[in-house]
User: Fold these one by one.
Assistant:
Number 1:
Amino acid sequence: MNRNSFQYLKRHFTFCKILFLIFAFQSFNCQSQQNMITPPYLQKGDTVAILATARKNIDDNLKPTIDLLHSWGLEAVVGTSIGLDFNQLAGTDEQRAADFQHQLDNPNIKAIWCVRGGYGTVRMVDLLDFTKFKQHPKWVIGFSDVTVLHNHLNTMGYKSIHGVMPVTIPRATPAAISSMKSSLFGEPLSYSVGPDKMNRFGSATGELVGGNLSILYSLLGSPSAIDCKDKILFIEDLDEYLYHIDRMMMNLRRNGCIENLKGIIVGGMSKMKDNEVPWGKNAQEIVDDVTKKYNIPVIFNFPAGHIQDNRALIMGSTISMEVTASGSTVVFQK
């Protein structure tokens, strides 16, 4: 072998080694993104912080929730945002963010339970620093407007809990409350629901993402937007015009979200509104119309969302869903 041939082979080997390292790094990076981090499950004696990220909570209405936490062997801390009154919001954006930041950074707080939804979480999420949270992850709990935090945490690689909030505890079903306890304490979590005429049969396994449809729609294009590829999407909503449900679903489809999903779970679509000239479809029919060309299983009327039977969902967990003529099952993997 002459010198030129040897140099050629040497350069070729070096080039191939670089390509291999790039491929290995990308594969590792993709794998690490799929392995969502689970905050430590709660134990008796742990402390849960109750605070507001959006609409104000100025009523003396937390006793049922604090009593519930005590019955589970947990302690409760009420954040400084509770009781603040700034028009519709629980204080200014800076005040709500400061309260949330304090609870994020406090290693003695093992879970943050958002008191209610409304609107306003998106106004303070970019003021938060998650550095200490990454060192000591903790559960963030809530639904509705808290979808901002569920999605933001998902992009960071952390699980969170979609479920009942302190203001909804008095009217929540025992099953909804029990599922919240199971989620927080790391107990097995699975659901069996009856058949629905609109269900699309099939089975799928994937990471659960989503939340309130209006919030998902509003986050598209932002750093908090979820990646839908190979995921199972949960959606629910309240008090929306039907044409707006169609608009939001079309936006998800045009953004490439729906075509990449493994399955869809549709929770409560509550108190929908229509115009004087009817849209012509209800919310479930709109979801079906936008997604019917994709060969994926869909569960309709799942017990989660703005309803009394708001079962807990561990967002970011891998779940297995099966939809048959006799009913549907959803099983969460640890």
Note: The CA atoms of residues 120 and 286 lie 28 Å apart.
Number 2:
Amino acid sequence: MGNLKKHFKVIAAVMVVCFFVMAESNAAAPQDGLYYFNAMKEAVIEVIDEHQDLFNKTPDGAVKNPKLTGKNYYRSVYKIFKTIIGADFSPKLLKGVKDPVQISHMLCSLLQAGRVATAKNQKIINTEKDGSVKLKKFIPAVFGRLVAERYLKKTGVAMKQTTLGKGIYKARNPYNYPDEWESTQLDKFTTTNWPLNKGIGEDLGSEYRYIKPIYIKKACMSCHGEPIGEKGPYGHLKEGYKVGDIRGGISIILEVSH
């Protein structure tokens, strides 16, 4: 068991290094907020459309549910996003904006909204047209990872979902293990009376690092709720979270100009 833990720690360290190497090698000149917002919108739609065969096509190739097509899916994501960031928000307000604090909060909130939409859509995603249920494994964590990977290729901006876990249960995927900076910030989220949806940012030379908490929703409970230690639908052990608990954070590295 000890060797297995060491093995996973090595994998996690390698993946964290790769994450930052990719971010550095793909880094582009800083853009305005509208550019980054539109790139995220494109990434969400592309990821959803590219996975239609997995969760939204019948055996004969027909669309199972129009709510799960790319543009419609994004509309539901955007609706949730506006409840997080403010109903008065409009993408055009980001034109010319290069404030890394504002951009980072907006991008992390948009990815957070996509995770929430994916959690809320699990019943539709997993239910076949004949009413039978088949787990597709297209869950919030998978959605977030795929969008972050696509976004990195589009913009050079590295985004990551991360968590300290709960009790003896750590991140389920080594890709999501926090680095030292993320661990410090996540600890603040979970050990203090942290304000809802408030992030933490820090200017580190040519980079701005930011992390925003993500929360357990009702739709997350079948995988992450109680009883602790019971296997969830995908075989992972439940950690005993309650609705509203902080699950972890969405972390971003944004290149800035000085």
Note: The first strand starts at residue 158 and ends at 162.
Number 3:
Amino acid sequence: MAPPVRRGATPAPRPSPPGVSARRGPAVPNAGGAGPRVPPRPAPQAQPARQPGALRGAAGPAAAAPAAGSGDTQRLNKRMAELGLCSRREADDWIAQGWVKVNGEVAPMGLQVRPGDRIEVERVAQGFQEQKVTILLHKPMGYVSGQAEDGHTPAVALVNPRTHWREDTSGLRFSPPQLRGLAPCGRLDIDSVGLLVLTQDGRVARQLIGENSEVDKEYLVRVQYGDIATDVQSAFPREQLARLCHGLSLDGQALKPAKVEWQNPEQLRFVLTEGKKRQIRRMCELVGLKVVGLKRIRIGRVVLGNLPVGQWRYLGPHERF
């Protein structure tokens, strides 16, 4: 995958993630495909002896294998994802290329590891991650978040040079390879608008929609209560508002606590840490409210801001969810 081009001077290389040992390797261009397709590993070259660091889970010696009974085992790709190194899919690609070592030995596919095992990743693998982009799109109504369905256009179709926000300050420029493997992180219904994140980076996807994700999302929701469309706040019972915050269930499961408050007499503000299908609309139905407008304005620490409807920008190098 061709790397995104920055305006101005080429920045200094980013340091390896904390605790990861990384060997220098030749730069390898991306060959395309769905996500980065990893090229054949170059022939090894003689290198001076080194003292690598290591990523460790439980406390244990830096170089020695853990003692028996030091903890339950799990697949290496899952462990790498839990440590924030990459997604499971990326881990499998790296392992297949021989770019991952465990306790100093090249790891085979499907290896089971323990919390104290030392994991090392070649620098060339990290280079592929640095080339990946994350895009913030102001999704209009009428577009679906993921694959095309029922004749509706997927939101990724809006990512092109013409719709790139001219006030984007990231310094990145669009190139077609950035569309390869670009996938939405979570849903935004066809009749909802606002902030939609699309990424090539499995680490970002795991952070936002992984099973243990705690990133919150903020929405502005315009509602009606029966035939009442103005000053809904005065007519809506306070005990029902409390149920929206905590006490509702969907699909037979209790919902996590939410923050729900009136933004103005006709509009509620929701902050959720989960994202069930059409969750806000279904929550409102349970307490007698009808949603007539829904807009997502924030995901974690990243806000929609002044991004125009139908336009997009890159997640900046210093922005974090």
Note: The first helix runs from residue 76 to 82.
